[in-house]
Amino acid sequence: MTTQELVAQIKKKKSFLCIGLDVDLNKIPPHLLKEEDPIFAFNKAIIDATHHLCVAYKPNTAFYEAYGLKGWKALEKTIQYLNTNYPEIFTISDAKRGDIGNTSTMYAKAFFEDLAFDSVTVAPYMGKDSIEPFLAFENKHTIMLALTSNEGAFDFQTKKVEEKELYKAVLETSKNWKNSENLMYVVGATKAEYFAEIRKIVPDSFLLVPGVGAQGGNLQDVCKYGLSANIGLLINSSRGIIYASKDEDFTEKSKLKAKELQKEMSKILSSRI
Ligand SMILES: O=C(O)c1cc(=O)[nH]c(=O)n1[C@@H]1O[C@H](COP(=O)(O)O)[C@@H](O)[C@H]1O
C-alpha cells in the first residue's frame, strides 16, 4: 500500500486508529478455546467488528511465536484474512527485527513477501546496512523505533551522544539512507512532550504511536504536536480495545472502545480536512 492510499483511507474513515492484535489465550473469552484455532477465531471476530473504525491492524509477532507452529499458522491466517477481505487496511507486522544485511533481507522477505504485510517494525541499533534491505521493497514500509513508550527508553534513547540525544541522531541519520521515503518511526504516546522536537526533524513522516490505553498515553496530547500536514499519525491501542470483555459480548465491547477513539479522532480531523 502506498502512503497516499493510507492517507486516503484515514480521510475516508475519519480515523487514524491502529488496533493491536496481541492475542493471549489467557485473556480471550473462554468459549473461543473450543475452536480449532482460537487465536484466529478471536482475531477474525475482532476484525469483523472493528474494521470500519480503524485503518490498520498490528499483530505483535511475539504473541504468535509464543504458541509455536500453531501461533505462526494463526498469524498467517490473520494476514490472509485481512488481505482478502479488507485490502484497504494497512497491516503492520510488529516484529522489531534488524540484523546484518543478508539476514535483514531474509526478514524482509518473510514479512513482505511470504506473509504479505504492508510494513514491519525494526530496531535501529545495527545501523544503515541492517535497515536498507527492508527499505529496498517497493510500496512496503519500514517502521523504525525512535523513542519508545516504555520506561527503559530513558536508558539509551534520550542520552546524549556527541551533544545530541540518541533518538534525534536516529531520526536525522536515517533520513539520509537509500529509499528513506519508505521509513516510518515509532514514538510512544507516553512521550507526548517530545513530539514537537520530533516533528522538527521529521515533519512529514508517518509516526506509529503505541501506548494509548493500557500504558496511559493520551490521544489529545499526542495530536497537539504529532499531527503533520498529511496527518502522519497511526495511533495504536491493543489491550485497551481487544480485551474490553471476556464474555460473549466481547466484539460489541471492543467495537465500543474502538468507536470512542475513532470519535475523538474524527473531531480532531474535522478541523483539518
Ligand atoms: O513497536 C511497537 O508497536 C511498540 C513500541 C513501543 O515503544 N511501545 C509499545 O508498546 N509497542 C507495542 O505496541 C503494543 C502496545 O500494546 P498495548 O499497551 O496493549 O496497547 C504492543 O504490541 C507493544 O509491543
Describe the structure.
The protein has 273 residues and is an alpha/beta fold. It has one domain: Aldolase class I (TIM Barrel, Alpha-Beta Barrel). The chain is 44% helix and 16% strand. It contains 12 helices and 10 strands. An 8-stranded parallel barrel has the order 1-2-3-4-5-8-9-10, surrounded by 5 helices. A two-stranded antiparallel sheet has the order 6-7. Strand 8 (183-187), helix 9 and strand 9 (207-210) form a beta-alpha-beta unit. The longest helix is centred in the C-terminal third of the chain and has 21 residues, at 250-270. The protein is globular. The relative contact order is 0.15. The structure holds orotidine-5'-monophosphate.
Briefly note the structural class of the backbone: alpha/beta
**Total beta strands:** 10
Number of domains: 1
- DSSP helix count? 12
Pathway: Pyrimidine metabolism; UMP biosynthesis via de novo pathway; UMP from orotate: step 2/2
GO molecular function, one term: orotidine-5'-phosphate decarboxylase activity
Organism: Polaribacter aquimarinus
Protein name: Orotidine 5'-phosphate decarboxylase
Give a concise summary.
The chain is of the alpha/beta class and 273 residues long.
List the helices and strands and how they pair.
Elements: H1 3-13, E1 17-20, H2 38-50, E2 56-58, H3 62-65, H4 68-85, E3 90-97, H5 101-114, E4 119-122, H6 128-135, E5 141-147, H7 153-156, E6 160-161, E7 164-165, H8 166-174, E8 183-187, H9 195-201, E9 207-210, H10 219-226, E10 233-237, H11 239-242, H12 250-270
Parallel strand pairs: 1-2, 1-10, 2-3, 3-4, 4-5, 5-8, 8-9, 9-10
Antiparallel strand pairs: 6-7
